[in-house]
Amino acid sequence: MFTGIVESQGTILDVGDGVDTRRVVVASGLPVERLALGASIAVNGVCLTVVDRSPGQFAADLGPETLALTTLARLKVGDKVHLERPLAAGDPLGGHLVAGHVDGLGTVVASHARGPALEMEIEAPHAIARYVVSKGSVAIDGVSLTVNTVTGNRFGVTLVPHTLAVTLLGQRAVGAAVNLEADLIAKHVDRLVSVYVAAQGARS
Question: Structural domains in the chain?
């Protein structure tokens, strides 16, 4: 479990060429050598399993689902990525509960400065947009953000100066794909309500 508060930026050192599974090696300033093999780490909002590590770098495998649903399939050597280690019991929950299970890709459709901040509009697939509500939370490339506006399948967020300084989101141009994870609680509530409504319908 993560919070969507990016700890550091890493650099892709190597990307395998497998079709169904690829291994990536990431350089990091975090003390990744302290992570246990099998530990989780979020890379651009995607929860990955550490399969090797040494001072300054770690390796993880990208499976078929990750390659199909996230931007990690497009990684190249030299690319920068967001990194976040998993939340430990007792740690402050600075953002919101983020599972690292990306729901799918969104597209940046607008981006413009507003003073020192940047306002960004994202278009999401309907299956994700249904969970996005004004003043709710969403994770974009692993960054916890507050939703400002919602219009159809599009929603707007504001990147404050700190977010622009410590993340890569300000570099996402119009047309860029981004990883989206909708609010975890919203998805569970929707599932419970759907099951309840279906059960009620079956009884009538």
Answer: 8-84 (2.40.30.20), 104-190 (2.40.30.20)
State pLDDT tens for residues 6-52.
999 999 999 999 889 999 999 999 999 999 999 999 999 999 999 99
Structure confidence at residue 195 (pLDDT): 81
The H or E element spanning position 203 is helix 184-203
Is pLDDT above 80 for 201? no
- Closest by alpha carbon to 122, among 144, 149, 154? 154
pTM: 0.92
3-class secondary structure per residue, the chain: CECCCCCEEEEEEEECCCCCCEEEEEECCCCHHHCCCCCEEEECCEEEEEEEEECCEEEEEECHHHHHHCHHHHCCCCCEEEEECCCCCCCCCCCCCECCCCCEEEEEEEEEEECCEEEEEEECCHHHHCCCCCCCEEEECCEEEEEEEEECCEEEEEECHHHHHHCCHHHCCCCCEEEEEECHHHHHHHHHHHHHHHHHHHHC
In order, the DSSP letters of 137-150 are EEEETTEEEEEEEE
